[in-house]
Amino acid sequence: LKPFWLKLPRGGKGCSGSNSVGGRSHFATMSDDWCTIESDPGVFTQLCEEIGVKGVQFEEIYDLEPGAFMTYDASRIYGLVFLFKWQQQGDTRQTIEADDNGIFFAQQVIQNACATQAILSILMNAGDKLELGPHLKEFKEFTAALDPQMKGLAVSNSEPIRKAHNSFRQQSSFEIVQEKASKGDDAFHFIGYICHEGKVYELDGLKNGPILIGDAPPGDCAWAEKAREEVKRRIETYAQKAAAGGGNEGESGELRFQLMAVVNNKCLEAEKEVERERYLRQRTNISLVSRGEDVELSDEIDDDDAPGDIPTFEELSVKEVAELQGIVAKCTAAIAELDLQVQAEKKKRQKWEKENALRRSDLVPLALCAMRHLALKGLLVPALDKGKAEHLKRVEAKKVAA
Q: Any idea what DSSP says for residue 84?
């Protein structure tokens, strides 16, 4: 799987709503209010946070071989988001009734919302494992009795969801207006995969309902492995068609896919583990002090808040001093390792915040101002020539490396 970061061109084709009829439908005016957003873990993570969801983040999956999810906690993989180049072709797979199977499913009725809709499909089916926040909790209750098409319409009219989605609109001082997308533009689509009551489902807003992939086999990360097999099958099918020249006229033969997992917030989870290790270390050190050992109590935390899964003082009192010292050493080593994970996750989130700030910034005025000043000083043309030379060097270097 070759991951990529995709941004549909402004005015290009997005994934079409399922209710478009004969050109512009009655939903077309709503689609104008939804922008295309970049397919990126940082974008999707912040999108969820701005809607009000807590404790989740998106991780890009670079490998589709067996065992790709073994490093993840199976209970904390809430779903998978799959991005692919959409093609107009028949799908003979049968759909099921979402309500009969207790699944939240919303049809996509407008363009450009498929990324957010795929994410919502996963979040809404996570049950009590996620804190959805007030907006999505109220939205889920409000739409509970609606059919899939009306749920999709409710998504398109949800101001908090649309506002969070459109906050990632590309800012530009110039707007290129295209009434109709060119024939050669590629269209891309997002779908979701979830595990619900022991079964794996594909949730595609362009379909009439969920598609049952199969039963989730037993074992660690088994449901995600089942979904991985389905994703890999689809990619191989596309690759075979492209190799055989089966693509439609005007479509690019390039294969581009992206797979992301919706998982728990790794930074928060690591910080919780650090707290647990600190509570255990403090209890163990207190037990050592009670036996006359010279120990420094560096963890100044209230033991009343300690988690219930760590040994009690009574359980520690029956252990030997050497064993207690070993527990302290293990806790200290674990805390050091977890602190590194926390710092790495914080750096990653800081990077995401900077990238998202740039996405929301219009740098055209800055560029124009810089060019104007360079021109006034007679440096614009030399700077342009220098830039061209550097670009040619990079092109040649890539050719040599290839």
A: E
